Amino acid sequence: MLRFPAWNVAGIALALVVTANAGANSAELGANDEPIKLAMVGYTGQHVSTHLAGQLLEKLGYKVEYVTASVFPVFSGLSDGTISGLVDIWLNNVGDIYPQVLATKKIENIGSLGLETREGWIYPKFMEQICPGLPDWTALAKPECVQALSTPETAPNGRFLDYPTEWGTRSATIIADNDLPYTSVPAGSEGAMVAELDAAEASKTPLLMMFWSPHYALVENEVGWVTMPPCKEQTEQHCITKPESVKIVWSGFGAKWPAAYAFLKEFQVNAREQEKMILAIDKKGRDLDVVVKEWVDSNEPTWRPWIDAGKN
To answer: What values do phi and psi take at 157, rounded to 5?
Structure first.
């Protein structure tokens, strides 16, 4: 019968415990030697959400890569696992491709991002003195309101500043549905829309426009949101409804990176905090990663429970 000195038995026991714990930690993290590839699609708010998730995943023990993708091809990458996750996507921007891919069970919706989103018609708050009855949409039909918003290019109609043409024409359809005396004028770009809003606020020039939140322009400009008319038809073309932002992952994500999966299910983004970061990046020209790191460094009580969810 083999005998070991007492110190050696204790050492072997300790080694076994350490090995067992290392195995448990490894299993919890999963394939942490392989990078989690997070999709970056088209707009700064989404980039902020993605880098927030990425920096926190690194704290959890993972490698992260950021992959630039457009809204529709990103679902092909998610389906085959070449893209691991998409942590901020507005479902009103994905057309038919999202439900089609979701039905194949190659991707998984892991819940809302918690982002307070909004989309609709806005106006500078001073216009409530010019168009009594705002924010109710019926105020827009009053002659004094139409006249205030009329321009040489739209007279006798009022001017409605719409999204760029390639973003769709819902507002023009809704204006027609409700016989509102306005002409939809597409903006040249997002930047042009922000410039008009800034100029209208500075010069107290009446303005009615399509817009969305979160957006940095709303940090610097006080706006009202029109209470929209009832939808003539329950379709995207005839309605403006509150967008939902969700988190989507490749279907194999949970098995491959269990702790990351648990973390991302808990991960949330506050719209007002996102707007402040967008302002710093887009308006003040600051570096995305630096701005996000500052938020992470200052808000551990917010994100620590998400990290703990990944560890437990």
So the answer is: -75, 160
